[in-house]
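Following the same procedure, backbone shapes were mapped to integers, yielding the entry below.
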Amino acid sequence: MAQVLPVEITEELKQGFINYAMSVIVDRALPDVRDGLKPVQRRILFGAYQEGVLPGRKHVKSAKIVGEVMGKYHPHGDAAIYEALARMAQPWNLRYPLMDGQGNFGSVDGDPPAAQRYTEAKLSPIGAEMLLDIDKETVGFRPNYDGSLKEPEVLPAAIPNLLVNGASGIAVGMATSLPPHNLGEVVDALVAMIDNPAITLEEVMRHLPGPDFPTGGKLSRRGIQEAYATGRGSLRLRAKVRVEEKGQRPMLVVTEIPYQVNKASLIAQIAALVKAKKLEDIVALRDESDRQGLRIAIELKRGANPEVVLNQLYKHTALQTTFTVNLLAIVDGEPKTLSLLDLMRHYLDHRKEVLRRKSLFELKKAEERAHILEGLLIALDHIDEVIALIRASEDAAQARSGLMARFGLTEAQAQAILDMRLQRLVALEREKLLEEYRELMEEIARLRAILEDEGRLWGEVKRDLLRVKERYADPRRTLLADFEENFNPEDLIEDEPVVITLTAQGFLKRIPLEAYRAQGRGGRGAQAGKTKEEDEATHVLVAATHDDLLFFTGRGRVYRLKVYELPEMGRQARGVHVKSLLPLSEEEEVAALLSVRGLEGEGDLLFATEGGMVKRTPLKEYRNLGSAGLIAIRLHPEDRLIGVALADPEDEVILATREGMAIRFPLEEVRATGRDTQGVTGIRFKRPGDGVVSLVAVKPGEMAELLAVSTRGYGKRTPLAEYPLQGRGGVGVITYAVSPKVGTLAALLKVKGTEDLLVLSKRGLALRTPVAEIRTYSRATAGVRIMNLPEDDEIASAFVVEEE
């Protein structure tokens, strides 16, 4: 009677999934380290071998091989089996195809193979090498799925298939990705390991410098050694491209593409970028591939720089790809990540065992034959007595027993004498038997020597490898190069001026400067971005796309981004939040922006706080500035950073306050200190609630003017000479006449008169106007209207745009 047992469902599911996962890992998705084959591939090759579909014979229908494999060894869908068979016949997927296909087996454009009833296949010569000597007990066999037949646990693999053809597969919780290699280089490396078992990876790489992909291309040397050493890595692949001319226009011609890149998809990808105007120098794109090989022609505009366009293609298309290396294979029934040296040792150990078992098999057969020959020679030496004994016997059994008793023969020898044909009695036949026996004894001695001496056994492994190299090795296809070091992302981006805007809530964007055309003084400006009711614009900055943009936060830290890394948007767009670009903490906000061209130059970073503090730190102190940021300045809890500028030690500093005061003093009065310092007092305030709004660095005796802009959109120019040089820490002099009508001072900027002024209001209005249109007044005046603002708006930030 059946018994029902209670089972915890979570445990049952857990165990069931573990069993499923191990089945996928070991019996489906991952290759064996010895022959480099997954079970379906091994069964296809063995099924073709069993059917006699060998290299020297005619092709048979793929459906016949698939049916043989499915019915006898692989009880899964025929589509999956045919897909595996087709891949083994595709020269763009396998460096050395294991099947020889006839018919439509797909293309590098991603076209699928024709149906299996239309295509034909047989083992390729290299595929046959994978099965060499399988009938000599070289590998173990196990029952097939229904126990009616035997199938090999692994193939003898005279070809180092895992190394030369690579493998890829996705199991449960793990994946494998082994790159293909050149057969000649792999054999040289394996022979070197046989000669020197303690060989190092560096010594191996003198023979095997890197992968060799079937589609050619160029491979960066960077990362190869690390991938070989650890079993994991990432390799950069590029297409091979040459520059030709058509008429007076340059043309890029692609002759080889990266491994596993679909050519049709690649061309469609380039065409889409041209249509989207991201690749504006391309005027024509053609696929000129034919029977002679791959050729993609990319015509450029007259005067275009082919190198720049090529770098853009590498950046944005599959002309440059990454091959992920994960040297994972099945070792003794378990998945393991291996180094290149491990893969080589496992293969050599497998071949050593195959040749040992082959030698044992051949020794057994040779000894059996020698044993028979010894009996035949005894019979020939006593032929008359043997004939008389046989004639006197009543039946074969009595004759056999008589021979065994009279001449001391074994049953097998006696039976061989009884089976001997009469023609063997002639003298010539006896000499043939003697010659065969002598040769057999020599072979037996050779085989015994191989089995007794490990050095001779390794010599056989080496001899087999060199035979394979001589027969199948071909030139390397993939060029190893050091192209990464010459690749500069900035080459892809035009170095042009852009406007960077930032709001109080941290929304950031860049806009081409040309989007702001110059207007006359007194205009209302153009909308520079959408802001929420509770958000306000706070910063405007003009920089070049190749500049480094430094973000100084209210907590005194500094972060860096390339200007081109900021999102480029239209004037009406709101932008993206700065915290999606920088690792800012929850309460950290950007207090100041500065653009610089590198951090390795001379000079100092000059800081000013709202509370009147100034600090000077050498620029070189920030040269290690990375994505995690650095401490820039130590701030008092109630103080905040309002500005940062680049200055030289001999410069002079001008600080301007909200209430219209300004002080000018030599920078040398501010001693240079490290990053984690707070600085010294630069200006003191006459009125409570006043604070610094602007920081300006000027050269001694410089012929320049200071442009003051008020919060209500008024402004003026004043000669720099009207600002006396004072000592640090004073209250300064009047620089602007503040009032309810004109508002307080919003910004003080150094100008020469040839620039444009770009002002940004809190509601997102922006106005660009020539500085020359703003009149010159003395210090204690308010000036003229620059921007006509609504009553509920005011100036948030101002920036001088240098003459282009």
About this structure: The chain has four domains: 31-159, 240-318, 343-472, 493-801.
